[in-house]
Amino acid sequence: MARAGEPYHYDRTQRGFHWLMAALILVALGIGIYAAWQVPGTSPRRELLDLHKSIGLTVLLLLPLRLVYRLIAGEPAYRAPPSRSAHLAAKAAHASLYALMLLLPVSGYVYSAAGGYGLPWFGVLSFPRLVPVDKALSLAGYAAHYWIAWGVGIVLGIHVLAVAWHAWIRRDEVMGRMWPRRAARG
């Protein structure tokens, strides 16, 4: 059941985590794709990859904060609950997104750390190398990072299609749960 004064919507902090992390992930994906087309070892590739790593490590640092807050704050009620199968599909999709948000930066970290590459965070500090420099491990990290990135792209595409389906076909409240509340809405 929804609480008085805050019905049917995620709170401001949950929405902030959602949109901030969505923006960071999309930017990191775009930078990563663009950097892949640049000549290895040259500028701007090095700088782009440093920014890509910084953003990815930021996502990795934000993820546990987001998960803990989600566990504390919970999920808002629905006016009209979705079917059991739709609710289970949404839970599975969200679990997949959370797993991918963890695995993508971890695999990128392993690729970079094991490859002997730097682990910068916006030029302010460098993350410690927690794995040995190991070419085979770096290659495994690269392969995992590459395929997990594809997984993120696919799951995000499905997520966006589901949002569009709820907004424009079902015309239900699902999309509005993550948007800021409007004064006229309940």
UniProtKB/TrEMBL annotation:
Main location: membrane
Top-level taxon of the source organism: Bacteria
This protein's UniProt keywords: Cell membrane, Electron transport, Heme, Iron, Membrane, Metal-binding, Transmembrane, Transmembrane helix, Transport
Cofactor(s) the protein requires to work: heme b
InterPro entries membership: Cyt_b561_bac/Ni-Hgenase (IPR011577), Cytochrome_b561_oxidase (IPR052168), Di-haem_cyt_TM (IPR016174)
Gene Ontology cellular component annotations, sorted alphabetically: plasma membrane
Listed GO biological process terms: respiratory electron transport chain
A Pfam family this chain is assigned to: Ni_hydr_CYTB
Location in the cell: Cell membrane
Signal peptide: none
Ranges for domain Cytochrome b561 bacterial/Ni-hydrogenase: 9-180
Protein topology in the membrane: Multi-pass membrane protein
Any one GO MF annotation of this record: heme binding
Positions of transmembrane segments: 20-39, 51-72, 92-111, 147-168
Gene3D superfamilies: Transmembrane di-heme cytochromes, Chain C (1.20.950.20)
Family per record: Belongs to the cytochrome b561 family.
Name used for this protein in its record: Cytochrome B
Provenance organism: Methylobacterium terrae
